[in-house]
Amino acid sequence: MTSEERHESRYQRRKAKREARILARSKELGDFDEVFSFRHLYLSGKKCCKNVMWKNSTQRFMGTLLLEVSEIRKQLMNEIFTGKGFIHFVIMERGKLRHIRSVHITERMVQKCLCDYYLVPLYAPSFVYDNGASLKGKGMDFSLQRMVDQLRHHYRKYGRTGGMLFFDFSQYFDSAPHEPLFREAERRMHDPRTQRLSNNFIRAFGSIGLGLGSQVSQTNALMLPNSLDHAIQEKMGVRAYGRYMDDGHLLHEDLKHLDDCRDDIAEVCGKIGLTLSQKKTRTVPLTNSFTYLKTRFILTETGKIILKMNKRSTKSVRRKMRYFVGWLEDPRKNFTMEDVRSCYESYHGQMKRGNSFKIVQKTDHYFKELFGFYPNEKGWKQYAQNHQERRDPGNGQCSHLGETPGERLLRYLE
User: Fold this and answer.
1) Cβ neighbours, 10 Å, residue 60
2) Beta strands in 274-356 (DSSP E)
3) Closest CA to 109 of 56, 55, 79, 70
4) Is 87 helix (H, G, I), strand (E, B) or coil?
């Protein structure tokens, strides 16, 4: 036996063991009947209603949840379950049109059950650690912190030598191919009924592309470039790597190696069926600042890492505050200070990710000019106490269920 034959034999043995582990993991998660048990569907239905109970459709669904679960499970067992189509709407996000295809809540329950109890536990062990989107325990904060950790480790070894390669897929969700996902499902799923249902959710978006607004789409969007993640870390030799859905970065001490990696990434993407965005794929030296996930990173000569948040967030929240002043005075809007507080605290939470003390302080002063108090705990309580005696002049009653606006805000603060 030659050395090439021995190498191939070892590879085949490792491959067989890997495939056996994947099959065993799928069987541990259960067959179709176990995945879509009454309990799993019921719990998934309750999770779908969380934080959206203000919708009439959600309230009706929750009121008949047991009947809905019973009927849908019967359809699933008979393999006659069909979706009710999509709710199409368009949003403008940072100057970019996004077409959202939201699924009906009954189909959302089935998708959540499939993802939470089967797809995510099946796919997640094969993801690289720095695949940071749409997984429990990960997200935007995780990806930003991983970037900081990688920069610190790099600086201790190489200083500011080298740079970052950023890449982005062009029209990722709209142009995502289905065949690689079908091949992964056939390889990893032991139950043909589960495989058919998962593939049908993907086919519902047409011959190509994945829809925004579907949990099955989010999970498969994580899986689609998985082979690229492993190629970058294992074949290209770049350990400081991370990907947040369709945004990825590579950190290396050799800029020439990053240029070579760019060509290799384009080649792997071609095999998957994805296209790199020429505009957003770029190499940046560490001596320059760079932006990742709408956050600007600055690595100073002393090794300090400064994070600057997107200026558009501050402009947007200041514009909203100006609108809110008028909405509070308009009784037709049914707008309260609770809504103002919720929006402004969301902005505060976002800005805490970076070194944004001064800009937040200036925005707090701007808030005081508009509303007369600072948006801290003391200011909110003072506002609530000053408005406890305000009554509705129309009928002498309190503004909401017997409460003054101040009393309602105090209850909200508790």
Assistant:
1) 12
2) 282-285, 290-292, 295-299, 305-309
3) 70
4) strand
Residues 159, 179: Cα–Cα separation, whole Å: 43
d(C-alpha 170, C-alpha 280), whole Å: 9
Distance from C-alpha of 290 to C-alpha of 292, rounded to nearest angstrom:
7
Answer whether residue 135 shows pLDDT above 80: yes
pLDDT at 273 over 60: yes
- The model's pLDDT over 167-201, given as tens digits with 9 standing for 90+, comes to 999 989 989 999 999 999 999 999 999 999 999 99
Q: Indicate the SS3 state at residue 117.
A: helix
Burial 276-301 (b: 16+ CB within 10 A, else e): beeeebebbebeeebebbebebebee
Q: Which two tokens stand for residue 278?
A: 């020429």
Closest alpha carbon to 115 in 20, 4, 36: 36
Q: Is 97 helix (H, G, I), strand (E, B) or coil?
A: strand
φ, ψ of residue 295 to 5 degrees: the values are: -125, 130
Q: Give dist(CA 409, CA 373) in Å, integer.
A: 15
Mean pLDDT across the chain, nearest whole number?
89
Q: Smallest Cα–Cα separation from 222: which of 180, 189, 252?
A: 180
DSSP conformational letter for 295: E
Confidence of residue 413 (pLDDT cuts 50, 70, 90): low
Q: Which residues contact 308 (CB under 8 A, 6 or more apart)?
A: 295, 296, 298, 354, 355, 356
User: Distance (Å, rounded) from C-alpha 377 to C-alpha 413?
Assistant: 9
* DSSP 8-state symbol, 301: T
Q: Which residues lie below 8 Å from residue 155, measured CB to CB, with a gap of 6+?
A: 299, 303
The whole model's pTM is what?
A: 0.85
Q: By C-alpha distance, which of 200, 247, 253 is closest to 225?
A: 247
> How many residues does the structure list for the chain?
414
SS3 31: coil
C-alpha R_g of the chain: 26
3-state class percentages of the chain: helix first, strand second, coil last, to nearest 5:
60, 15, 30
CB 123 within 8 A of CB 181: no
